[in-house]
Amino acid sequence: MTLKNSHTTIGGKITIATTLLGVCLIMLGVVIDVPRGNVALANNATTSVTVLNTPPQWNSPYGDAQEAPGSSTSTPTNVSQNVTWRANVTDSSGDNYYLLICKALSAPTPVNGGAPECGGGVSNRWIRSASTLSGATSTVATTTTEGTGSQFSAEFNDWYAYICDGNAVNAACNPTPKSGSGTTSSPFVVNHRPTFTLFVNDSPTNPGGTVNWYATSSDPDTYQGADTDTVELFVCKAADFTGTACGAGGTWGVSPFATATPTTTVVLPNPDPDGTFAAYGYVIDAHGGLAALGGMQGTNRSLIVNNMTPTIAAASISLLDTDGSGNLILTGIATQTPGFSVQYTVSDQNSCQTASSTNEIVFGLTDVYRSGITSAFCDKSQWYNANNCYPGAAATTSIAWNVTCTASPASCLGTGDSDVIWNCTFPLWYVADATDGTGGPATDPTYWAQNWLASAQAADNNFATSSLVDASSGNELTSFLAYSVSTTTIAYGGLQPGNDSGTVGNSSLNRTDMYAAGNLGLDETLYGADMCIGYPAACSGLPTDTIVVANQRYATSSIAYASAVSLLANPGATFAVHIEKSTTTATQAYKTTHWGIAVPGTITVSGDYLGQNTILGITSDRTYW
After folding, report:
1. Tens digit of pLDDT for each residue in 231-254?
2. CB 308 within 8 A of CB 274
3. What is the DSSP string of 230-289?
4. Residues annotated as region Disordered (predicted)?
């Protein structure tokens, strides 16, 4: 007879107690039913046992837990970023499972119907997954943190992966820990931020000079096998660091990687505008460009470019006529001739243009003088002299002389150009000393062996002022023969035939004054024409109706008619009145010529006799100037 064990099922599980009881009953029956005698009867007994809950198993494709992605010395995890693990697990009972990442090798504690815990408790746990379906991949991540007391303060962090199911009655953990393989294995590596505690440069610096940037920075990590990891310094022109480079504002410099004191240099252009320029420092490490936090990160330590004093080359100074070429020529009779100019080039290492695109050179000045005066005695307003010295400073006083100095905009090509051309325009008075000639003729100017020179000066927008520089060459100022005569009429009055005007110079109506209206001393050339009633028609020449030219006489003072000089017909004769060169701008030097006449006794025709005398100014011997 075949006997079957009886059993009772409770909640899907075979209760072991009931089964054992059944076995006892069966065995008792066997004893009772064993026949007597030598006949043996064979009986089959069906066995039964309940296998309790089994732990979950590591499954492909990973075979164990893996970092995803790997956190290794070559690819460390930056602080504030996640370390991630994944595993695929199956449970024979179909229970959900938990992936548990522990800090130490210690058997975990399963929890019936709940989440397990690392051995040693929560302080030994990196992270624990949520309940995950059997056969599914579990992915779990923890965010690394920084700061004092952070559990991620170490670079190398061991981990051990355990898997446990959440069986409600008899939860179980797989006793075999896993730690990954290759670059995805334990430990995970944390990359910490570098420190950045000092950021300076050694400016102010001149254009063309070198600016050195120094940073005190280090990294506590040792991935490179040295005491510390390496760091890199970026110096940006704007606060626009992208994490790996300066932004659109531009870069001053980038250091090589260094362990503690990254340094970079920049060679300033020459020219280079002066001023204070923003410079922001940023430090990153060599692993993923992890930036320093706080400290000097992003701090502005301005670069200062020194202001330089402008200079002027003597050879660049040119004293120019009103048309820009040739000798200086006066044209203003008893007044000023405008439009002369001094042109010179101003050089500045800060360029001719500021960083804000305005003019670097804002002031120009020129002194113009006869070379015998020298610039040392023509650079102050009190030395102004219309004959020989025109100091630029005089233009700011009440002296009637004006000079205007301006830059030529087209001559400055921007901040890369050090030079700008300045033009100072000014007038010269008619008394300005002539310097032409060779000194051979007696009528050559007194200062024929000299010339006219200019000196120039400039200042920048910071009031840095160049020295006053004398031109290396000058220009000649030409002789200017100019004069004026006080009247256009000589009125002798009424005389009877056979009489003369008496003393020459006995009336203001028969005198002429010649004024020196140029820069020369003067004599006169005098000649006249016969006088008659029909003038300007030709006189008859008859003694009865013509007063011949020789009947007019002239002198420099009041003398008797008979002692005066007879006037000649064209071309006349030189009258050495010796008018000195004018030396003031308000009044001209002059000399008076007195006139007299005799009416011949042969004149029988009465009436108004007219004629014409010509008075010409000529250059006198310079010894009389």
Report:
1. 999 999 999 999 999 999 999 999
2. yes
3. -EEEEEESSS---SSS--TT-EEEEPPPBSS--EEEEEPPSS---EEE--EEEEEETTTT
4. 54-79
pLDDT tens for 177-191 read 999 999 999 999 999
Tallying the residues shown for the chain, one arrives at 625
- For the 195-305 domain, the top CATH level (class) is mainly beta
- Map tokens 């119907």 to a residue: 113
Mean pLDDT, residues 67-79 taken together: 90
The closest of 608, 579, 587 to 489, measured between CA atoms, is: 608
**CATH 2.60.40 domain span(s) along the chain:** 57-191, 195-305, 483-624
Taking phi first (over 0 means left), then psi (-120 to 50 degrees means alpha), and beta for anything else, what does residue 377 get? alpha
- Rounded Cα distance between 481 and 625, Å, is 13
The CA–CA distances, whole Å, from 618 to 435, 552, 580, 582 equal 18, 21, 12, 14
Instruction: List the structure tokens of 103.
Output: 């800090």
Residue among 151, 169, 47 at smallest CA distance from 101? 151
pLDDT in tens, 252-280: 999 999 988 999 999 999 999 999 999 99
What's the predicted TM-score (pTM) here?
A: 0.77
For 132, half-sphere exposure in the C-beta direction (CA atoms, 13 angstrom radius) is 23
Q: Which CATH architecture has domain 483-624?
A: Sandwich (2.60)
**Taking Cα atoms as reference points, which of 303, 299, 232, 240 lies closest to residue 268?**
303
Indicate the helix (H) or strand (E) that contains 202.
none
Query: What is d(CA 355, CA 474) in angstroms, rounded to the nearest whole number?
Result: 36
Q: What share of the chain is helix, strand, coil (3-state, %, to 5)?
A: 10, 35, 55
Four-way CATH pick for 57-191: 2.60.40, 2.30.29, 2.60.120, 1.10.3210: 2.60.40
For residues 479-490, b (16+ Cβ closer than 10 Å) or e, as one string?
Answer: bbbbbeeeeeeb
pLDDT of residue 62: 81
pLDDT band at 41 (very low <50, low <70, confident <90, very high): low
pLDDT digits (tens, 9 = 90+) for 393-421: 887 776 777 899 999 999 999 999 999 99
